[in-house]
Amino acid sequence: MVLKYYYDLMSQPARAVYLFLKATGIQFQDAPVALRKGEHLTPEYKKINPFQRVPVIDDDGFLLTESVAILRYLIEKHKVDDHWYPRDLKQRARIDEYIEWQHANTRFYGAMYFQTRVIIPRATGQPVNEGKAERFRGDLDTVLDHIENVFLKDTKFIRSNDDISIADLLAVCELWQPIAGGYDFRKNRPILRAYMERVRERMQPHFDSTFKFIYKVYEMNSGIQSKL
């Protein structure tokens, strides 16, 4: 039975898993879930994921949630190229180091900035809480400093000069969220700009098609940058 993948490409973790599936050639059946329409909140979807989030995989009746768990499961089952999640103990530990760190850092502050700037105002009709957005942007700047000075120190990819890993997919998918929300930090951060372009090129021809909707959101909000 073909793997069934529940996702919405507006979700950062769902984009990361989607890119991985495409890049590795793992066959899967599309099962899109439109978050903007509330399809994840239906009783039917709650049976698939009690947390009512994306992504989810259904592997012949085996349901698994959480992007990192999904990626590790797919890597072990399909024996993909080693660079995605190295079997060398120390190299794998370095990848895990970023993956564990990013939940409360890259993911949290990037998502909160995007929600404050885009999601909440559109959902409520209220103006942007500028003070809150500015605080999240300041915290995000600290996170970006850490990525540049720790995780990308003297390397082309997260903790590696060899090739891309799942850490890079997770990182770039999260980093695009505040950019789409109007904070294009790449303009003043050449290290991150070069890194993100390196990942984009490495993941073609799948990257641009995966990010098509995010690019549109970015174009809509790009005018915010001039006000910051």
TrEMBL record:
It comes from the Eukaryota. Residues 88-218 form the GST C-terminal domain. Its EC number is 2.5.1.18. Pfam families: GST_N. SUPFAM superfamilies: GST C-terminal domain-like (SSF47616), Thioredoxin-like (SSF52833). Its main location: cytoplasm. It is found in: Cytoplasm. It catalyses: RX + glutathione = an S-substituted glutathione + a halide anion + H(+). InterPro entries: Glutathione-S-Trfase_C-like, Glutathione-S-Trfase_C_sf, Glutathione_S-Trfase, Glutathione_S-Trfase_N, GST_C_Theta, GST_N_Theta, GST_Theta, Thioredoxin-like_sf. Residues 1-82 form the GST N-terminal domain. GO terms for molecular function: glutathione transferase activity. GO terms for cellular component: cytoplasm. GO terms for biological process: glutathione metabolic process. Keywords: Cytoplasm, Transferase. It is an enzyme of class 2 (transferase). Homodimer. Belongs to the GST superfamily. Theta family. PANTHER family: GH16740P-RELATED, PTHR43917. This is glutathione transferase. It comes from Lingula anatina. The lineage of its organism: Eukaryota, Metazoa, Spiralia, Lophotrochozoa, Brachiopoda.
